[in-house]
Amino acid sequence: MWRFGLTGSAGWLHVEPEAIDGYRATAGNTYRVSGYATYQSTAGWYADNVLPFGNQVLGRLGVRLVRPFDIANGRVTPYAAIDYLHAFSDGTNVNVGGIAFTSGKLGDAIRLSLGANATMTARMSLYGRVSWSHDRGNAGMRGWLFNAGARYVF
């Protein structure tokens, strides 16, 4: 089954890179709009492609183990997942104060996740996830992800 859509996100970022010239830390806000396409097989595996507008193209291939539980007004589905993330493009260009900077390639990573989806009504659902990513090779994402929210179908 194929699913297509748009997603928006807003987040807070705290970075502590290992710099040669000493300790550095910075924080910032991030906002993103992305298009996505997901293929999910009846056997449970899935493949995602995410295309952030003006950013790097990222693909994901993974497996998710789920166990749904019926509750009084809906269903709760906890899951465990493992994903392989691959960046298809090189770094992006960022313009700060009229000066152009080029970022490095996002790289590849392995991501482990635990989460749950809860269907409260036919139109309302809640979701939450905690993930840990580890880079593969010379570049990639490393760190923790916490994600929670609500979906409402119009």
Automatic annotation (TrEMBL):
One Pfam family name from the record? Answer: Autotransporter
Q: Can you name a GO cellular component term?
A: outer membrane
Q: Which residues form the Autotransporter domain?
A: 1-154
InterPro entries registered for this protein in UniProt? Autotransporte_beta, Autotransporte_beta_dom_sf, OM_autotransptr_brl_dom
- By its UniProt entry, which NCBIfam families does this protein fall under? autotrans_barl
Q: What is this protein called?
A: Autotransporter domain-containing protein
Q: Which organism is it from?
A: Pandoraea faecigallinarum
Taxonomic lineage: Bacteria, Pseudomonadati, Pseudomonadota, Betaproteobacteria, Burkholderiales
